[in-house]
Amino acid sequence: MAKRDYYEVLGVNRDASDEEIKKAYRRLAMKHHPDRNLDNPKSEDHFKEAKEAYEILSEPSKRQAYDQFGHAGVDQQGGMGGNGNFGDAFSDIFGDIFGGRAGGGGRSNVYRGADLRYNLEITLEEAARGTETRIRIPTMAECESCHGSGAKKGTEPKTCPTCGGHGQVRMQQGFFSIQQTCPKCHGTGRYVADPCGSCHGSGRVKQHKTLSVKIPSGIDEGDRIRLSGEGEHGVNGGPPGDLYVQIHIKPHQVFQRDHDDLHCEMPVSFTAAALGGEIEIPTLDGVARLKVPAETQTGKVFRLRGKGIKGVRSIAQGDLLCHVVVETPVSLTERQKELLREFEELSQGNAATHNPKAQGWLDKVKDFFGG
Questions:
Q1: What is the pTM of this model?
Q2: Are β-strands 277-283 and 224-227 bridged in parallel, bridged antiparallel, or unpaired?
Q3: Which of 143, 169, 301, 346 is the 20 to 30 A CA-CA neighbour of 205?
Q4: What angle do CA 95, 101, 104 make, to 5 degrees?
């Protein structure tokens, strides 16, 4: 099962403070603690999931690595993602060492590789029309020197003397007999006496690979594209994880996206707003012409049907909404100022007719002050 996003696990935003992360973890730990949910076997999984998320996000360097590379950035820094599983029940409560569950009969554990996340920035145009791009990601691959065994060439891993190859040991905690992951072999049932010089005994090395990603038209901010089997390689022959490409759309200089609709600010000159006219409006498909009726005010919204974006799961194309902003003229010449003063004098005699909003506002002010 793919790992959930750590911020999603704790229920906090990506810009959450350390205190907010701590409070969220405490709340979840109290809610899902196994001792308080003896009749709910799923509570232990939720408890461990919250603890793993907190251990990563509460440590600045790990949080930075996670924000940049997702689970791939922390799996080799002490995070729990390397094996993908936890120890048996209560091992978390007593602060035992974490690891994958051991297989019976001395067999080596087989783990599915960790899922990876890649944050991909694309333009609004690419999101609207779709595109194909190539990404380069860090991943853990099987060490070629030791073929994944972790042992130096010419040697082999040995059966762990602590657990006898079972991968787990038992310890007594008062009345409880607790089975936990072996601290020496970390659940594999084997240990490397003479480690490989390339991977230092882990059996895997960090590499980079380049992948082609098809971006479907209409994709939106926060959508994810799953590349099956492109995550980290499994351990001891386990299947690889998946790669999730999370989409982030760059800010656009003209448009703001709202699901399938687009919004833009449309500056209109003082005279065009008063007398009416026709102006050119940019769209993702080119230029459209829009008729502005006389006496148009700031805040008026014009809707251009079908000029938005057709989302990935949408049936119809969205719209383009143009928000009018009447522009006050600047850098006026003396002649222009003279004409505007003349216009103002001509308008003062019947202000309520020419400036109804201003006159209405003045009337409300007078009523407010009892005048």
A1: 0.55
A2: unpaired
A3: 169
A4: 135
